[in-house]
Backbone:
């Protein structure tokens, strides 16, 4: 198990060191409507301290910093933190701190953030349930935990995972909506809500920001071409202006951590 974790960590570092710049520049990752929706659902305010788990190039963290008291971003990949710091400087934000480190376990004490968020990360974790538990652990009683990630219908997952592993070898396994809800239930979150959106992508632009193994990019194109009109991938692939477009189905799950008084009843 240790060898598997170390191998997977190496794959993440390899992929996201190379993806750091193109990932930060993808328009789909900086859509204001998506970021504003996350902020609205989280209920973040000027008194909140926020943790962004596996923060990548800091897009979500910087968006939250415009509304919160203080935001901390943690990511395994130094190149991503470099991009995050650059974005912070560009936006002139002072209420951000960054940390290079693993998320399992999170290197923070219990109950030290009032809002804990993550986006586009759970399909990279070997043990997403354990990471979710860590997010709840570092959240204050009464605080909120929010996860936004791809959520695939169970009957489409095998084909989707096969394609995503070709595109990004650090991909592990997409979760279903039911699995996200089960994690929230197991952690005892209250007032759990879900919102479903679709994140539109252009296949060629998406591939340019990815680093599949040599030759796998053409395999991916062929998979998408063959999936048009069938939708085995669950992405609604279609032709638009001579190019293939598709959309990731995204779940935004939010819940409140109960406090000690509530747990007594």
Residues:
């Amino acid at each position: 198990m240790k060898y598997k974790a170390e191998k997977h960590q190496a794959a993440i570092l390899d992929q996201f060191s190379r993806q750091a710049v193109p990932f930060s520049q993808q328009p789909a990752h900086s859509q204001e409507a998506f970021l504003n929706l996350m902020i609205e659902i989280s209920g973040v305010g000027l008194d909140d301290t926020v943790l962004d788990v596996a923060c990548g190039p800091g897009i979500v963290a910087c968006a939250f910093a415009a509304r919160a008291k203080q935001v901390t971003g943690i990511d395994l990949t130094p190149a991503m933190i470099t991009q995050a710091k650059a974005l912070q400087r560009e936006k002139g934000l002072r209420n951000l701190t960054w940390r290079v480190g693993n998320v399992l376990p999170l290197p923070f004490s219990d109950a030290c953030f009032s809002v804990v968020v993550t986006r586009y990360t759970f399909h990279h974790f070997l043990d997403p349930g354990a990471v979710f538990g860590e997010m709840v652990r570092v959240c204050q009683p009464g605080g909120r935990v929010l996860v936004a990630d791809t959520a695939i219908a169970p009957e489409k997952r095998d084909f989707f995972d096969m394609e995503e592993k070709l595109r990004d070898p650090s991909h592990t396994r997409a979760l279903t909506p039911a699995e996200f809800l089960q994690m929230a239930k197991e952690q005892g979150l209250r007032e759990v809500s879900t919102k479903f959106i679709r994140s539109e992508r252009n296949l060629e632009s998406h591939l340019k920001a990815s680093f599949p193994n040599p030759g796998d990019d053409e395999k991916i194109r062929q998979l998408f071409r063959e999936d048009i009109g069938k939708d085995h991938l669950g992405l609604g692939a279609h032709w638009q202006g001579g190019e293939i477009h598709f959309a990731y189905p995204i779940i935004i799950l939010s819940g409140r951590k109960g406090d000690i008084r509530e747990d007594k009843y």
